[in-house]
């Protein structure tokens, strides 16, 4: 699997954007649940947005992007897909910014800074799991970040549209892979 940054620029003068927004949002939320969308958000002026995605290759991702209701409705001026590699050390945010890294799904109105924060949090989780000898899945990675961000099991279940029990099973797997036993140990295990 490879990671890609997808940049969309919308036809901002088109009145149909508002009508297609709920379908666009549902489409990307479903891709987030499937592990394709890792994070994303709109530019402040809502003229477009960035998304971090994971796919087998750029053609597979292009097919998914082409299924977006905005793209199908010709409401997008341009789409740019670039393969992206996380470098050791991650990205640093400017001082004074509040990135709110707790929410990992596609959120209409979240900023590019929030996406950068999500990306920055990702490698630490992956490194901690590798130290334990087992890699977290993309979904476990998102759940672990939400837990560290202070979300309850019920809130996580609601976000991913699954049962609380399904979330509990993922948490058990995360704990086993990281060699921990309690929620309070998660942040320090990930920072190790």
TrEMBL record:
Keyword vocabulary terms for this entry: DNA-binding, Transcription, Transcription regulation
Glycosyltransferase keyword on record: no
Domain HTH luxR-type: 129-192
Protein family per UniProt: Belongs to the YciI family.
SUPFAM superfamilies given in the database record: C-terminal effector domain of the bipartite response regulators (SSF46894), Dimeric alpha+beta barrel (SSF54909)
Keyword match Zinc-finger: no
InterPro entries: Dimeric_a/b-barrel (IPR011008), Sig_transdc_resp-reg_C-effctor (IPR016032), Tscrpt_reg_LuxR_C (IPR000792), WH-like_DNA-bd_sf (IPR036388), YCII (IPR005545)
Matches recorded under PANTHER family: DNA-BINDING TRANSCRIPTIONAL ACTIVATOR DEVR_DOSR
Family annotation (CDD domains): LuxR_C_like
Name of the protein in its database record: HTH luxR-type domain-containing protein
Organism: Lentzea aerocolonigenes
TM region positions: none
Xref: SMART domains: HTH_LUXR (SM00421)
Biological process annotations from GO: regulation of DNA-templated transcription
An annotated Gene Ontology molecular function: DNA binding
